[in-house]
Design goal:
Layout lengths: L1 H22 L6 H44 L3 H13 L7 H4 L1 H11 L4 H14 L2
Length: 132
């Protein structure tokens, strides 16, 4: 009984010591750094959310254009995804540019250096789009 009571008292004492800094005003000493850190962290979070929102909006905005263009050229979904992957890996901002400009397509194709099935698919896409 005495041991259980002592451990409860000890836990309460430790909890009181842990909460002691919280009883001090936030604007004293280390509290200023804590508040400043929280404000900076919140500001960075807001900026990050804003940037991610703009990036996502840009991707969503370009998506329907690319789908319509691929449909008009007779390309299927796997071919569209391959073109989007090619654009992403070669820093082409708009994947539709690959279907509009032969030079853009060829430059991205050379930079990406596809092999195997991807090489065959990209060559098939190039013939279908530019050799009409």
């Amino acid at each position: 009984m005495m041991t259980a009571l002592s451990s409860i008292q000890f836990a309460a004492l430790q909890l009181g010591m842990a909460l002691r800094p919280l009883r001090e005003p936030l604007w004293s000493g280390q509290g200023k750094f804590l508040v400043a850190g929280l404000v900076i962290a919140m500001a960075l979070a807001v900026v990050a959310v804003g940037v991610l929102s703009l990036v996502r909006h840009d991707q969503v905005r370009q998506g329907p254009t690319m789908r319509r263009l691929c449909r008009a050229l007779g390309l299927d979904t796997p071919q569209r995804r391959l073109l989007e992957q090619l654009a992403g890996k070669t820093d082409v901002r708009c994947p539709a540019a690959l279907l509009i400009s032969r030079g853009c397509f060829d430059t991205a194709h050379r930079r990406y250096r596809p092999q195997g099935v991807e090489l065959q698919q990209l060559n098939r896409i190039r013939r279908r789009v530019f050799d009409r």
